[in-house]
Amino acid sequence: MSNWDKFVETFFNAKVMVKYLPDILSGVVVTIELALLIIVTGLGAGLALALLRSLAIRPLNWLIIFIVDLFRSLPPLVIIVLMYFGLPYAGPAPSGFVSTWLSLAFVLMAFSEEIFWAGITSIPKGQWEAARSTGLSFGQTLFNVVLPQAFRLTIPPLTNRTIAITKGTALGTVVAVTEILGQASSAMSNSYNPSPLMMGAAAYVVLFLPVVVAARWIETKFAWKR
Amino acid sequence: MTRHIVDARAIHKHFGTLHVLKGVDLKVDERELVFVIGPSGSGKSTLLRCLNRLEQPSSGSIMVDGIDMLDPKTDINHARRRIGMVFQSFNLYPHMTALGNVMLALRKVAGKGRAEAETIARAALERVGLADRADHTPGQLSGGQQQRVAIARSIALEPRVMLFDEPTSALDPELVGSVLEVMRGLRESGMTMIVVSHEMSFARNAADRVVFMDHGLIVEQGPPAAIFENPTHERTRAFIGQIQRH
Amino acid sequence: MIEAFFNIEIMKAAWPIVMTGLWNTILLSLIVVPLGLFGGLILALLASVRSPLVRWPLMAWVDFFRAFPPLVLLVLLFAGLPFAGLELGGFACVAIAFFLNTGSYYGEIFRAGIDSVPAGQVEAARSTGLSRMQSMRYVVLPQAVRNVMPDLLSNTLEVVKLTSLGSVVAVPELLYEARQAQSITYNPTPIVMAAVIYFLLLWPVVRLLSRLENRALAGRR
Fold first, then answer.
1. Which of C124, C129, C142 is the closest to B91 by Cβ?
2. B190 touches B69 (CB < 8 A)
C-alpha cells in the first residue's frame, strides 16, 4: 500500500467514520445547544449589567466592575474546572454541561457588558438632553434613542467576542460533556483510530466557518466611517 | 536644442471605463514655473501624479531629467529622489517630528549618515522659515506650517523638478500666504516647478506658462498674460470668466 | 467552606507545585506571544500585497484558523499525529497550535491597523523615493501598531489565558499543576489558589485595557 493510501486508511477510514458518525452528530447537537444557551444567557446578562450600570449607583457599579474584571481575567477553563470539581464541596454539584454553559456564559456576560457599556457611553450627552427635554423618560430615551445608535457600534466587537467564546464549548470535553470533541475523543480511543477526530474537526469547521465568514461580512457592513 | 527636463507625450489614463487623460503632451524646461489650471475632473492632478508614477499611465511616455519613468527596469525609488512632490493634504508623518519627517528619506534613500542628514534637514527647514519648529510634531503645527515642512521634506533631497498638487487648497485663507512665499522663494532660486492650483494671482505674478486643461486634454497654454487677458478658446474663456468672478 | 476552599495546610503543601506551574505558564506565554505576533505580522504584510491570488487564500487561511477551536487543534496535534508516526510533546503541540490560531487573530489586528493608515502617508513616503518595504517599516507600521495597540493588548491577554489549555495535553503549566495537587489532596484549594494567581496576574492588564478602550472611544465619536 502506498504512503498516501496508508494515510487515508488511518485518518479517513471510511468504516470507522461510518460507525461513529451518529456519535459525532449527537455531539454536534450538544455543541449547538451549549452555544445557543451561552449566547442567549451571556449576551442577555451582559446587556442587563450594562443597563444597571447606566443607573449610575456607585456601589452597584463597583460590584459590576469587579464581577466583569473577574470574568475577564480568569481563563475559561479554570472557571469550568472550579465549578465542576470545586463547587461540589460547597454543596451544588453542577453537571459538566451546566458547568460549561454557566462558565462560558459568565465570560460572555463580562465581555459583552464592556462592549454594550462602551456603546452606550459613546452616545453624546446631547442626545440624552434632547430626548429628555421633549419629555421622554429615562427608560424611553434609553430604548428609543440611545440603544439603537449604540447598536451599530457594538456589532463588530460583539460578533468577534461571541464567536471566540462559543468555540470554548470544546472545553466541555475536560468535564465529560458529550459535545463534539468529547465524542470524537472517546470514539478515537475505542477504535484506536484518529478518523473520528478528523470528523470532529470537520464538524467544527462546518459549524463555525460560515459564522466567521458571516461575521466578517457584518463587520464590513457596520464598519467605522473614518 | 536643450532637452526638456520634463517631456511627457501622448499620456492616456483610464480608471476602469473612465477615460481621464485623453492624450496629453507636456514639455517643461529647466527653471520654468508651469501652472496647470482647469475645472475639477479635468485630469490635472492625475497628470501630475503620472509624472512621478504615483499613477501608472495607460499609455504614453514620460521622461524626467533623462530618466524614462515608465520603463519597468528603471529604479523608481532612485528616480523619485529627483522629483519632489507636495500634496494637498500635506501627508506629514504624524509619529515623527518635523525634523524626523525631513530626515527619513535623506537617511534611507540618499543613504546619508545621521549627522549629515540632520544638518541638511535643518537647512531645509531654515529655507522654509521653520528652523525653530524642528522638534515639533505635525499635530503641534498649523496647516501652513505643516505644508512648509512638507516642502522642506522634498527640497532636502535636492530634486530637479517639484510637483505641487493643490498645495494651498486645504489651508485657511490667512495661512496661504506663507506657503506661497516659500514657493516664490523656490522659484527665485531657479527650481523647475509644475503647480496645479487655483491661486490665480500667484499664477499671474510668478508663472512662466499657464496650461489650461479640460476633460482630459490640454486646451490652451501660454504666458499668463495671454491666457488670463486674451484666451483664444471658448472653454478657456468660460473658465477664466468663472474664476474672475470670485 | 474555608476548610474546603482556603485550606491553609493544603495551601502550604501545594505551594511549590503551584509555583512551578506559574513559572511554566509565564515561560510558555513568553514563547507563544512573540510567536503569534510574528506569525500575525507576516500574515498582515502578505495581505497588503495587492494581488487577489494572494489575498484570497490568505483570508481563507485566517478565517479557517479563527473558526477552528484551539483545543481541537491542540488535541488533533497531540492525539492525532502519533497515528502518522509523529509524536510531538505537549509543549510542541501547544506552540504549533497557538502559532496557527493566535497568529491568525494577530494577523487580523495588524491588517486592520495597516488599513487604518491613510493612503496619503504611503504616497508621501513613496514620492520621496522610499521603497515599499521602507515605507511599510518606517511610516506605515509604526502608525498601524499605535492605532491598534488596545486590540493587540487585548489579544495578548487572551493568549496568556489560553495557555491554560496546555493542561489538557499534560504541559505542566499553572492549571495542570493545580489539578495535580487537587487530585493528590482531594481538595479544591489548589485550584482556588491557581484562580487567585491568574486573577492577580491578569487583572492589572484588564484594568489597563478598560481604561485604554474608554479613552479610545472618547476620541472616536
1. C124
2. no
